[in-house]
Amino acid sequence: DLWMNDSPVAQAPRQVLKSTLARARELGYELCTGVECEFFVLSPEALELADRQDRQLKPCYDQRALMRRYDLVAEIADCMHELGWNPYQTDHEDANGQFEMNWQFADALTTADRQTFFRYMVKTLAEQRGLRATFMPKPFANLTGNGCHMHLSLWDRDNEQNHFDDPRGELGLS
After folding, report:
1. Which of 135, 94, 90 is closest to 115 using CA atoms?
2. Digits of tens for pLDDT over the chain (174 positions)?
3. Cβ pair 115, 37 in contact under 8 A
4. 37-61: b or e for each residue (b if 16 or more CB lie within 10 Å)?
5. Were both Cys, which of 9, 58, 86, 115 would link to 2 (CB 3.0–4.6 Å)?
6. How far apart are CA 108 and CA 30, in angstroms?
7. Which of 19, 11, 89, 95 is nearest to 59 (CA)?
């Protein structure tokens, strides 16, 4: 949390989220989120993709490109597992040199904190291998950009009922 003059800064994003979540709790709700973080793995100078063999026109889910960076993505997943995040998916994303990693959803503040730490962790582990990782939205004009899909669900306070789930509703949604 960002503090100034011995009190939290009300306009800081984390404080705004905490305030919003407190209001939701007063109404009996818990906001849960999950994210799909995308990033590029680049050369040490960050001028080109680290994997020069990653040249397919449609590289999404390219297992060979994923395996060439297996050491990095496996260590990231192992770290997430050790931290108790329950990672469940890693893939080569839509652009050359781009990857996506997902972990189990949690309350919105926990997910936000994890996403912030995830970015630091990925960059640090890439640097240890002499590489760079970037989460920039559009580092290359000719490639699909990075995104971060967010999944939202609204639960009761005990996290027993997802209020978006309705088997009778269109597509199973309330």
Report:
1. 135
2. 888 999 999 999 999 999 999 999 999 999 999 999 999 999 999 999 999 999 999 999 999 999 999 999 999 999 999 999 999 999 999 999 999 999 999 999 999 999 999 999 999 999 999 999 999 999 999 999 999 999 999 999 887 889 989 899 888 888
3. yes
4. bbbbbbeeeeeebbbeebeeeebee
5. 9
6. 8
7. 95
Q: Which amino acid is at 127?
A: E
Q: Identity (one letter) of the amino acid at 16? A: V
Q: Hey, which residues does 78 pair with through a beta bridge?
A: none
> Token pair for residue 71?
């050491």
Residues in the chain: 174
> Which two three-digit tokens encode residue 29?
């709700």
123 contacts 32 by C-beta, under 8 angstroms: no
The single residue listed with the structure tokens 């818990």 is 30
